[in-house]
Structure prediction request, 275 residues.
Amino acid sequence: MTTPSIAVIGAGNMGSSLIGGLVNNGHPSSKIWASDTSTEKLSQLQQRFQIQTTTDNIQAIQNTNIVVFAIKPQLFANVAIELKNIVQSRKPLVLSIAAGIRESSIQQWLGGHIAIVRAMPNTPALINCGAAALFANTYVNDDQRSAAESILRTVGVVVWLPDERLIDTVTALSGSGPAYFFLMMEALQQAAEHLGLPHETARLLTLQTALGAARMAIESGKPLDELRHHVTSPGGTTEKALSVLEENNIRLIFQHALQAAKHRSEELAELMDKK
Ligand SMILES: NC(=O)c1ccc[n+]([C@@H]2O[C@H](COP(=O)([O-])OP(=O)(O)OC[C@H]3O[C@@H](n4cnc5c(N)ncnc54)[C@H](OP(=O)(O)O)[C@@H]3O)[C@@H](O)[C@H]2O)c1
Prediction:
């Protein structure tokens, strides 16, 4: 595929992050359209990135190869139905980042036989540090797969899923995951304050430790248990703390937490299907 023309429907948090990611990675501004109900958001994007903007979703996708749906899930059906005719005449790749909207629903609203990639990004995409999982339906060709991957890769790492049902597990892991880490950091900070550290000191040491641990794991590529053993001297302080966490079933707690989130993700997708 030559440089594809991309239309982003919904220029909110995620949509504008993707646009920023694309432009910063060298995608020509002339080949990016943004559509939104807010003229204010559009004019800010236009000024910042010199992209094409419109409040008319149909105009946005008139000459595009890829349509990114970055609107709220509850608006998806109406917007997709509005775009059905033009999508059927142009047959672009549809890339949806909407949580809980199944490929089969999108296919039905758009009239069928459309190449669709469903993505589950997460909030750190807003600072180009996201983690997204993608699923492609059988209409998606190799060029379209790599185009979808490149779009999401501008705001973080990307993995492919062989089965759409795994998106509910991804939602439970990386979709909701930032909140688990926020909670852990909050708990660590509070515990340190309780033991006498000033608030700001506890906060800085907590955040930098979390960042350092994640970077060490990513940059070394070593298994997590190996990294953990490496910093756990027999009879030392870390060993004492870890034994308290293990005795209190930290692994089982996370297993239950992810199961609950996955179950809720399935329930929400079910509700969206019925709309
Ligand atoms: N934020 C995340 O971390 C995250 C993570 C994973 C997945 N997602 C998914 O990403 C999607 C977008 O989320 P977001 O946080 O970016 O939401 P958002 O900030 O609300 O962005 C959606 C944008 O769409 C606009 N819009 C509303 N109706 C429209 C229409 N008919 N045509 C075109 N644009 C319209 C909204 O304008 P108004 O504000 O004027 O209504 C808003 O600017 C959602 O489906 C969400 O599930 C988000």
Q: What stands out?
A: Strands lie at 6-9, 32-35, 52-54, 66-69, 93-96, 116-120, 130-136, 156-160. The longest strand covers residues 130-136.
